[in-house]
């Protein structure tokens, strides 16, 4: 497989209240074409900072102090904003955690998806995208506002926006956190279908190692801004090496396809 994204020794600092907070410390990650990887960590571990750094959406208080982000062998950190605009949303897209705050509450769903299509936008293309993300009655949904549909459906709309330009990489930044268990598994299955149909590589960011193991081939475990363990998902689930990873596994419950639960194997 061809490597599509390579993050080398990436470090990010936040400058807050006259002090520096190191959010990422020499992070290294590889992503290949059509691959799904998981970035796992607790709150404030740096996982979302990593996702936002890839597409230059960091807060103004943040600064990249070291490293490279190579997309198709070009360092994104050397590109100007106009160049990034041609990549962001088109070649690399992001699905945010809270669709309700990410969607425009005053704009109809169909129009928001329409604006995300860069080549020959049309209602027919929006209808096709809605079908691809599992939304029925697409003509009705096209004319509705975000508050008129469920949280799970709003997240599907966000996914439709993210795939509108058939990006090479999708960053899923905790896309299931605000959803119940049933919807979480549905979103996982949907992203699997997207990965298969659109051939988009996916970076799935989450605190839930059990959930992400259902979709990601490889897992990167983060703690205090560092990658502390990386391996194939099945290897980490069966024989995690780092003590922090073992704590994550012992504190979670694995949800299988039949919605039964069982303790993760130690």
From TrEMBL:
GO terms for molecular function: ATP binding; ATP hydrolysis activity. The keyword Transport applies. It holds the Pfam family ABC_tran. Its main location: membrane. It is found in: Cell membrane. The keyword Nucleotidyltransferase does not apply. Gene3D superfamilies: P-loop containing nucleotide triphosphate hydrolases (3.40.50.300). GO terms for cellular component: plasma membrane. SUPFAM superfamilies: P-loop containing nucleoside triphosphate hydrolases (SSF52540). Residues 5-249 form the ABC transporter domain. Keywords: ATP-binding, Cell inner membrane, Cell membrane, Membrane, Nucleotide-binding, Translocase, Transport. It is a peripheral membrane protein. PANTHER family: ATPASE AAA-TYPE CORE DOMAIN-CONTAINING PROTEIN (PTHR43297:SF14), OLIGOPEPTIDE TRANSPORT ATP-BINDING PROTEIN APPD (PTHR43297). This is ABC transporter domain-containing protein. It comes from marine sediment metagenome.
